[in-house]
């Protein structure tokens, strides 16, 4: 996932090796493409996707900053959209598959290793996910009547979650990423799909200009007010809850099925692997707001807060 050997396809070599690079001593190197940093495998996926993805006006795309709750959002939107086909029951797909195997990432799963998948036979509305920054989303998507649900999270928890995740996925013999070094890189904008703040701001601006196309969500708000946010997603995607559904408690049922406690305790997520090989349990750690307090020093907190204030100033966005 993040530590794959840096194999670059011949047709991408000239382009990729001309890009600014940050050598990863402990993780894979990152390359700066169209203003954002990506591991080489994801980058090739992004470029292939830009060249070949044919958007449909009916597509729904979930876009997130890494470690902002993508797994949760995938579970919620999948369950919501497919509630007629898959009513909540003992054989609901989420009980036997990790959300990442139900809603596939464009650049890590579909357009990966130079594959060009045939997505034309998928029934509409199609549902995909991605971390691709706004400036790099495929042209066909920008030209279509797309609907994007964007999710981000406060930068301190995002950073801690990412640091823990990278350490979890790396081969044991290679040791752990130092917190300090990873932090300095994150602050300089050098992180997967970073700079974090630019990723968030570009989608924030788009959501302000085109609110019917981009729904902007925050993990922290979703944790605080899950029912309000779920109703809002349902409205935005054009599948609001009917009175009967509301009365039957469907909103709460979906949230219960997709809750951290429920998903992280399922056998499939405790001991299973994704079809792409990662351990499912790596996507479930604590699922709480504020774990940064247990990891960051006062200086780190001050520095991140200061960067965030400066970057978001005047945008109307508070993280
Ligand atoms: P922590 O590392 O802070 O626990 P992503 O899905 O984008 O990779 O983000 C992972 C983060 O979302 C992790 O945060 C993980 O524990 C949390 N998460 C996973 N499933 C969740 C759920 N169903 N509800 C809330 N948070 C969840």
Automatic annotation (TrEMBL):
Enzyme Commission number(s) from the entry: 2.8.2.-
Annotated ranges, domain Sulfotransferase: 58-316
Protein name as annotated: Sulfotransferase
Source organism superkingdom: Eukaryota
PANTHER family documented for this protein: SULFOTRANSFERASE SULT
Similarity comment: Belongs to the sulfotransferase 1 family.
Keyword terms, alphabetized: Transferase
Signal peptide location: none
Species name: Fraxinus pennsylvanica
Statement: the UniProt record of this protein carries the keyword Transferase: yes
One annotated GO molecular function: sulfotransferase activity
Family annotation (SUPFAM superfamilies): P-loop containing nucleoside triphosphate hydrolases
Keyword Transferase in annotation: yes
Gene3D superfamilies attached to this UniProt entry: P-loop containing nucleotide triphosphate hydrolases (3.40.50.300)
């Amino acid at each position: 996932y993040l530590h794959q050997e840096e194999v670059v396809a011949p047709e991408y070599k000239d382009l990729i090796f001309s890009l600014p690079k940050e050598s990863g001593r402990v993780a894979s190197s990152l390359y700066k493409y169209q203003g954002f940093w990506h591991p080489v495998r994801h980058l090739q996926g992004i470029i292939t996707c830009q060249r070949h993805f044919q958007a449909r006006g009916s597509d729904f795309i979930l876009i997130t900053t890494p470690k902002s709750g993508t797994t949760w959002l995938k579970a919620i939107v999948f369950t919501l959209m497919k509630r007629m086909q898959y009513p909540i029951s003992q054989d609901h797909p989420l009980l036997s598959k990790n959300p990442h195997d139900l809603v596939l990432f464009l650049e890590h799963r579909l357009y990966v290793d130079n594959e060009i998948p045939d997505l034309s036979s998928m029934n509409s509305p199609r549902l995909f996910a991605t971390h691709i920054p706004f400036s790099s989303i495929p042209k066909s998507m920008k030209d279509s009547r797309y609907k994007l649900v964007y999710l981000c999270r406060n930068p301190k928890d995002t950073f801690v979650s990412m640091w823990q995740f990278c350490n979890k996925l790396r081969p044991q013999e290679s040791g752990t990423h130092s917190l300090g070094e990873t932090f300095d890189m994150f602050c300089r904008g050098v992180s997967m799909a970073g700079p974090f703040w630019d990723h968030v701001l570009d989608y924030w601006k788009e959501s302000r200009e085109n609110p019917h196309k981009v729904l902007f969500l925050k993990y922290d708000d979703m944790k605080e007010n899950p029912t309000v946010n779920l109703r809002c997603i349902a409205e935005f995607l054009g599948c609001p809850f009917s009175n009967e559904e509301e009365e039957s408690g469907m909103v709460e049922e979906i949230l219960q099925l997709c809750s951290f406690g429920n998903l992280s305790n399922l056998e499939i997520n405790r001991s299973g692997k994704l079809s792409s090989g990662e351990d499912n349990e790596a996507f479930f750690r604590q699922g709480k707001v504020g774990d940064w307090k247990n990891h960051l020093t006062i200086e780190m907190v001050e520095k991140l807060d200061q960067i965030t204030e400066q970057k978001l100033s005047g945008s109307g966005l508070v993280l």
